[in-house]
Amino acid sequence: MQYDSPNNVGVGGLQTGLPKIRDGFSPQQIDLGRYLFFDPVLSGNKTISCASCHDPNKGFSDGLPTSIGNDGHKLKRAAPSLWNVGYLRKLFWDGRASSLEEQMQGPLFSKEEMNNTRVNLLNTLNSIEEYQQLFVEAFPNRVEDSAIQLDEIYTSIAAFQASLVSLNSKYDRYAHGYHQALNEQEIEGMNVFRSFVARCAECHTPPLFTNQQFAVIGTPEPDGLPLDSGAEVPFQDKTLRGAFKVPSLRNIEKTAPYMHSGKFKTLRETVQFYTDGRGHAVPEDENLIIHWHIWEPELSDYELDRLVDFLKTLTDETFIPKIPENLPSGLKPSV
Fold it and tell me: Quick one: pLDDT at residue 190?
């Protein structure tokens, strides 16, 4: 289903338009990207794939508070979902990447994550005959008998990721006019979500359920860990200390635990955080500039429960991809 209201007008309305998605990829590039995405041959020790942290059966997250990288290294942040990632302008929790191609080079070549190098990645893929053939089919205009190139690898994985579209949930059917798609309690939750009391929709703006901006909300870090500086670092902006990209809420019931550090185990704990008081979890030695939408809405337990009901109506895995049974590398798919 498409959202095509003129000029993307409105905040939180049922017909607010979608931003432009990455497109122009061929079916061959998308399918090649699918193989690469699930193939642990992309990592230095051939044990970790993109899907290790972005499992389609877990909302393209990994079900962990923070992800596990190379040799069991515990990473700093939770793995964000990849659903609808082709619509997003900034990537990573701190927004340090501006394209899918730029983003994927982070984990691929990080010693803490997939621990590969550009030279080794090229040598590995160019040594696999089936991948050589798949790249020829995906990039038919390349010079005959030329080797696989880095930009072809990045394009293929970006093509697959951009195909991960989720826009046919119960909510979407309701928004497009089938009002029986939501029950009474889910509609109550939607009304709380859109209200000027809760103000959820002002940051988690439909239909992507993110405004693609950064917000300092003062979420607590895991016990014993210092404050994560967030977007302050890549943007060198002290006003963004503790700020993170507003995540989409699409398929949110599949991606527990929640927040950048996986602090909250359930959606109910997460929505409770927003009504417990502005800045209540900020360390005493920090003076963060909390987003002005974060205040004290004093929502009741009933309203919070209805909010959770509504959030679960954003689940849609219609286009969940098939995990390949066999990979060109001969390795088993890693999820």
Answer: 97
